[in-house]
Amino acid sequence: MPQKQDWDKEKAMAETLISIVNFKSADKIKKAIDSIVASIPLEISYEIAIVDNSEDETEAEALRELARKIDVVNLYVADFNMGFGAGNNLAFRKFAEQDTKYFVIMNPDIVFMNNCIGVLRSFLEKHGEFACAVPKLFTTDGEILKAYRRQPTVTDMFLRRFMPHCFKKRAAYHTMQDMDYSKPFKVPFAQGSFLMVRAEVYEEIGGFDEEFFLYMEDADLCMRLAEHGGVCYVPTAHAIHEWERGSGKDFKLFLLHFKSMVQYFRKWSGK
């Protein structure tokens, strides 16, 4: 079981809960949190929940030190790696309150470029038809990240994995390169590196499907969010994602990615 002493702060009535699931990325989390604290205005109440899946005492101690120094940071150290979706669900169960309106799912390697949380919050306040909002994500080189996609098909996933330099028109269509990125638009499948979800919707749909340990859990979540208004891209909220395509470099992660794809298409085929 997770160590209770690593979640010992009293719950605050924060409107926004930011969840970060860590796996050996404590150094990046410090940078991410610095950007959060520097960018969010005082009138927005928020808390940060870190769930540490690293199974590494050095990582845990680094995060404990961070939680001791920054009041809004709350830490939960797990004895085992429960996966990305389960980690975010745990953060929501442990720390979301009745007053929590927005649940932010955020990767450790995200750095804010502006008041990203405030911009997305304002957008959702004005546009009650959407369940979730996502920012304009940039690579470290300043290019717009291809984090916005149409619903995945077996063909698109196969081409992206095994023939990334072929069928470029189809790949561009799948990653929504035909859209005007200076304006908001609806996104069928938004990468799970940064999602701001209405807390009541997240609770209603049960959060992430924990059958997905890693990969495709974001696609699955977006499919279920679509039944509650879906996801909207917001061009005025900016963040950098220091994206590393782990499954393209590690064979074990590739197999895990493949397994998750099979799970996803079995779940949604015919629906």
CATH topology: Spore Coat Polysaccharide Biosynthesis Protein SpsA, Chain A
Helical content stands at: 25-40%
pLDDT averaged residue by residue = 91
Q: What is the domain total for the residues? A: 1
Secondary structure class reads alpha/beta
Model regions low in confidence, pLDDT < 50 over at least 5 residues: 1-5
Strand content: 15-25%
What does this structure look like?
- The protein is α/β, with parallel strands linked by helices.
- It has a single domain (4-245), classed as Spore Coat Polysaccharide Biosynthesis Protein SpsA, Chain A, CATH 3.90.550.
- The chain has nine helices and eleven strands.
- The chain has helices at 26-39, 57-69, 84-95, 116-126, 154-162, 168-174, 199-205, 217-225, 251-268, and strands at 16-22, 46-52, 73-77, 102-106, 110-112, 132-138, 148-149, 185-187, 189-190, 194-198, 231-241.
- Strands 1, 2, 3, 4, 5, 6, 8, 10 and 11 form a nine-stranded mixed beta sheet that branches. A two-stranded antiparallel ribbon has the order 7-9.
- The longest helix has 18 residues, at 251-268.
- The relative contact order is 0.16.
Question: In brief, what are we looking at here?
Answer:
37% of the residues lie in helices and 21% in strands.
Secondary-structure topology with pairs:
Elements: E1 16-22, H1 26-39, E2 46-52, H2 57-69, E3 73-77, H3 84-95, E4 102-106, E5 110-112, H4 116-126, E6 132-138, E7 148-149, H5 154-162, H6 168-174, E8 185-187, E9 189-190, E10 194-198, H7 199-205, H8 217-225, E11 231-241, H9 251-268
Parallel strand pairs: 1-2, 1-4, 2-3, 6-11
Antiparallel strand pairs: 4-10, 5-11, 6-10, 7-9, 8-11
